[in-house]
Design brief:
Helix content: over 70%
Order of helices and strands: HHHHHHHH
Distance between the termini: 58 Å
Number of domains: 1
Number of helices: 8
Strand content: under 5%
Number of strands: 0
Shape: globular
Structural class: mainly alpha
C-alpha cells in the first residue's frame, strides 16, 4: 500500500501507461506484416481483397485504442496526484488495452460463429471503459487529487453512459450477431445522452433551490 506519493510517481505512472499502450497499438500491425513475409509474391489488390477482414480488424482496433488513450489522457490531465485505488484501476485498464490485439486477431480469423468473438471484443471494451470510469469517479470523490486550476471539471457521467451503451451493444451482438460490431455505432448516442443528463441536473438543482428560498416566507 502506498504511504507517500510524489509528482514523479504520477509521471512514472503516466509514462508506463503510455509505453504499454504504444506496444499494444504496435502489436496490431504484426498480423499485417506476417501477410507479406512468407516469401511469396502478393499483388496488392489480391492481398486487400483476400485479407480485408484483417485490415478491417486492424483499422477498428487502432481507432478503439486511440480513443481509449485519448480518454485516459483527458482524465489524467486533470490530476496532480493519485491514490492506490487509482493505481490498480489503471492496471485493470492496461490489462484490457493489451488484450485488444488478441481479440483483434480473433476478429480477423473468425468463421461463421461470430457472436462469441464479437461479445469478447465488446466485453473487453466494457472493462476498459469501466476501469477508466472508476478512475474518474475516484478523482471526483477526492478533489484534492485534481489540479487546482481545473478542480471540479471532471464528470464521470459520460463514461457511465458509454458503459450502458456498450452493455446494450454486447447483448445485441449476441442476440443479432449478423449486425456484428456495427452495434458499436450506438456509442454515437453517448454525446447527446450525456449532454441531456448534464442539462437536466442544473434544472433540477434550480428547482430545489427555488423551493428552499420560498420555504421561509411560507404562510400557514
Amino acid at each position: 500500500m502506498l504511504t507517500s506519493r510524489t509528482p514523479r510517481g504520477l509521471d512514472r505512472l503516466v509514462n508506463f501507461t503510455d509505453a504499454a499502450v504504444a506496444i499494444a497499438i504496435t502489436l496490431l500491425v504484426l498480423p499485417l506484416v506476417d501477410l507479406v513475409t512468407d516469401g511469396k509474391e502478393h499483388p496488392l489488390r489480391t492481398l486487400l481483397e483476400d485479407e480485408r477482414g484483417t485490415f478491417l480488424a486492424f483499422a477498428i482496433s487502432f481507432v478503439v485504442i486511440a480513443s481509449f488513450w485519448t480518454g485516459h489522457h483527458r482524465v489524467f490531465e486533470h490530476l496532480e496526484d493519485y491514490s492506490s485505488a487509482m493505481l490498480w484501476a489503471n492496471f485493470l485498464w492496461l490489462a484490457s488495452i493489451v488484450f485488444i490485439p488478441f481479440t483483434t486477431q480473433l476478429l480477423a480469423d473468425q468463421g461463421t460463429d461470430t457472436a462469441p468473438v464479437n461479445a469478447l471484443y465488446i466485453g473487453t471494451m466494457i472493462v476498459t471503459t469501466g476501469s477508466l470510469a472508476l478512475i474518474e469517479v475516484l478523482a471526483v470523490r477526492d478533489p484534492s487529487l485534481q489540479r487546482a486550476e481545473v478542480r471540479g471539471q471532471l464528470d464521470a457521467r459520460g463514461a457511465l453512459v458509454a458503459i450502458a451503451l456498450l452493455l446494450v451493444a454486447l447483448v445485441l451482438s449476441v442476440v443479432a450477431p449478423v449486425v456484428g460490431l456495427y452495434w458499436l455505432f450506438l456509442l454515437f448516442l453517448s454525446g447527446p445522452l450525456t449532454r441531456l443528463f448534464r442539462s437536466r441536473r442544473p434544472t433540477e438543482g434550480a428547482g430545489v433551490a427555488q423551493d428552499a428560498s420560498e420555504e421561509p416566507g411560507r404562510q400557514d
